[in-house]
Design brief:
Elements (H helix, E strand, L loop, with lengths): L197
């Protein structure tokens, strides 16, 4: 049985209670879901391009292969969510909580992750090129094989982060905290590195 694609684009639902909702494959482009509760929701393969989810609760939601290009998720909580292979290019995740999330092979190119919390996040193979990660907390994050080329990691906390085989070309880590971070095999050409790295 083929699942039909539900079209909910342009809806305005501030504070909506969508806990555990099954919205797999739905089109939610340009939806206004400010402060919505989507904890545990199933959004795999959904499209939320240019959606506004500032302050939304998305803890433990399944967002595998979701499209959220140019979406706004400022101060949203995505703790424990699964965004494997999602597309969040040019998204605004300023001060978002992405701790303990699965972000493997995610596209975050040119996204704003300034002051975001990414503690213990799985970012293996992620595309973070040209990202703004200033003041981000990446403590214990797994960034093996990630593309961080030309990313701004000024004042980011990379304590215990794993950057092995990551692409850090042209990245700015000059004021980042890299205590006990590993970077074996990382590409560092043109990167601004902190003392001792």
């Amino acid at each position: 049985m083929t699942r039909s694609r539900v079209d909910l684009r342009d809806l305005v639902l501030p504070g909506a209670d969508l806990r555990d909702a099954d919205l797999r494959g739905a089109c939610l482009d340009r939806c206004q879901l400010v402060d919505a509760d989507l904890r545990g929701a199933l959004l795999d393969g959904a499209s939320l391009d240019e959606a506004v989810l500032d302050g939304a609760l998305l803890q433990y939601a399944s967002l595998r292969e979701v499209s959220m290009k140019r979406a706004r998720l400022r101060q949203a909580s995505l703790h424990g969510a699964d965004l494997t292979r999602a597309d969040l290019r040019q998204a605004n995740l300023h001060r978002a909580d992405l701790s303990a999330t699965s972000l493997g092979e995610i596209y975050l190119t040119e996204s704003d992750l300034q002051a975001a919390t990414l503690q213990l996040a799985d970012l293996r193979g992620a595309f973070l090129d040209f990202c703004d990660l200033r003041n981000a907390d990446l403590t214990g994050a797994q960034l093996e094989g990630a593309d961080l080329s030309s990313a701004d990691l000024s004042d980011a906390d990379l304590t215990l982060a794993r950057l092995d085989d990551a692409n850090l070309r042209q990245a700015d880590l000059s004021t980042a905290v890299t205590t006990n971070a590993t970077h074996e095999g990382a590409q560092l050409g043109g990167a601004k590195l902190p003392p001792g790295m």
